[in-house]
Every structure is written in C-alpha cells, then in structure tokens.
Specification:
By secondary structure, the chain is an alpha+beta fold. It is about 60% helix and about 10% strand. The protein has 11 helices and 4 strands, in the order αααααααααβαββαβ. It has helices at about 1-25, 35-45, 50-65, 70-90, 105-125, 130-140, 145-155, 155-165, 165-190, 205-215, 245-255; strands at about 195-200, 220-225, 230-240, 260-265. The chain has a 4-stranded antiparallel β-sheet, with helices on one face. A hairpin with a 6-residue loop joins strand 2 and strand 3. Helix 1 (about 1-25) packs parallel to helix 4, helix 6 crosses helix 7 and helix 7 (about 145-155) packs antiparallel against helix 9. The two termini are about 30 Å apart.
Length: about 280
C-alpha cells in the first residue's frame, strides 16, 4: 500500500509537470508535444475544443487496447495519470501566463520539464500518452529507448505540424521533444552513471584483492575459458563510479599491463555494496 501511494503521488506530480510544460511553454508559442498529446493540441488549435477534454477522449481507446497487454495495475495507474493530466491542463490553461516567447528556451526548458513529468509517470507504472504504451511494448523487444521510439513515431505528427503552425514552429517542436526524450531516459535510467568493468588476466585474484583493499569495491570472479589457449581462468567483474574508473585501470595495469579490460556504461545500480553510487 505504501508503494502504491508513493507511485500515485509521483504520477500526480509528473502529470502536473507535463501540464505546466504544455500550458506554460508550448501552447502559448504554438508548439506541440508528440503522440496523442500533439494530435490533441493540433485539433484544439484548429477547432477551439477544450484541450483537456481532447487529451482524455483520444487516450481512452489506447488505454482500453492496453487491457489485452498489461496488468490491471498499469491500466488503473495509466487511467489515473491521463485523467490527472487532462484535469491539470484544464485547470492551468490560460491561468499561469506565458513563461517565455523565446523558441530556444521553450525547446530546452519546456522540453526538460515535459520530459521530467512524463518520465516520472513512466517510472511509476503509468503512462500519459497512448504512443507511450506502444513504446514501452517495443522497448521489450528492441534495444532502443522509450524516447527514441516515440521520436520515430512522431515524425509524421511533426510533419503535419509544419502545415498547421509553420515549419519554424514544427522544427522547434521537434527540438522540444528531443530534449524531452533525453530527459525521459535520464529519469527512467537514473542520474548516477557508473561503469561496469570486465577484466581478463592471469592475475585476476591479485587484481581483485587490490580493488577491494584500495577502492573498497566488491568484485565477482567468473569462470571462463580462453578461446585460443582453451585454458581455464578467472574473469573479474565489478562496478565503480565513473570518477574512480581511472584509479581502477591504474590498479589493473600496474599488476598486469597485458590485461584485457572491457568497460560499459551502467545507468542504474542497486544492492548492499553499491549504495554509495
């Protein structure tokens, strides 16, 4: 219950941030978001129909479609997120004033606030847009981020926006969403980027003990076999903060200059030995 309440609170905050970005940055400057939200904004601009109402009505079919794919909890929290988003857009629309008319500032700061809001909702088992449901599904099958998939889906929408608002506005809108998609990835994957390291060496036991003593980091030994020599050996694996990567490489090279080191980015880590990240 505590986890559910926290998720609903973060979803509410995310919905408010997204609504603030829409009404404070995008709508006053004739720029759009992507997906169903962008379609709703264009229809509202052309017909003067209430944007909050359009956001809710156009998203309902996607929520119903998701019933066949996702669990009841996701549907419940998505329905709540879309409802809160629609209400916040209706409440703040025309009441918070225009933050800025500078297109670049709208694209950067409006996109960051929008991405933070959408990312909070996604991270807490909800969604604000029907296209996000599609994106979440595809990320389980393809090695691309949620933001990248949504960007590809929105190319057609931004092309339409060029005819509705003008090409300058459409390009600023695309830049806004690019900023938002990057922010979504940061919220979903975490801010504290670490590095994972694989070390292949005949002296891995010594290397590992020095990493433990000098860096106070845990290491894992993995049984491996050389592809050319077919000799069994230990492969070392550990995760360190980016700032300590150079020191770790110095430790490895000082013990075995011929060691093979593979380094990868780690966007989020969890566990008893890595709370300091």
């Amino acid at each position: 219950m505590k986890k559910f309440i926290l998720e609903m609170l973060f979803i509410t905050l995310g919905a408010f941030l997204a609504a603030f970005a829409i009404e404070g940055f995008l709508v006053p400057n004739q720029m759009i978001d992507g997906g169903i939200v962008g379609v709703s904004m264009m229809i509202s601009y052309l017909t003067q129909i209430n944007l909050g109402l359009l956001l809710f009505v156009l998203n309902v079919p996607f929520i119903l479609l998701a019933l066949k794919i996702y669990g009841k909890m996701f549907i419940l929290q998505t329905f709540y997120a879309v409802s809160a988003f629609s209400i916040f857009v209706g409440l703040v629309g025309g009441k918070i004033g225009i933050v800025t008319h500078d297109g670049l500032l709208v694209a950067v700061f409006g996109g960051m606030i929008l991405g933070a809001g959408v990312g909070l909702v996604l991270r807490n088992n909800g969604s604000l847009d029907g296209t996000e449901i599609l994106a979440i599904t595809l990320t389980k099958k393809f090695p691309v981020s949620v933001g990248e998939i949504i960007m590809f889906v929105n190319i057609f929408i931004y092309t339409c926006a060029g005819f509705v608002y003008g090409w300058d506005k459409a390009m600023y809108s695309a830049l806004t969403y690019f900023t938002a998609s990057r922010t979504i990835d940061v919220v979903l994957q975490g801010l504290n980027e670490a590095k994972s390291i694989f070390v292949v060496s005949d002296k891995n036991l010594e290397i590992g003990s020095n990493i433990i003593s000098q860096l106070d980091k845990s290491v894992t030994y993995i049984d491996a076999q050389g592809g050319y020599s077919h000799q069994k050996k230990k492969m070392l694996y550990c995760v360190v903060p980016r700032i300590e990567l150079t020191k770790l490489k110095d430790i490895v090279n000082s013990i075995d200059p011929e060691a093979f080191i593979a380094i990868e980015n780690v966007h989020e880590v969890d566990g008893k030995r890595i709370k300091k990240y």
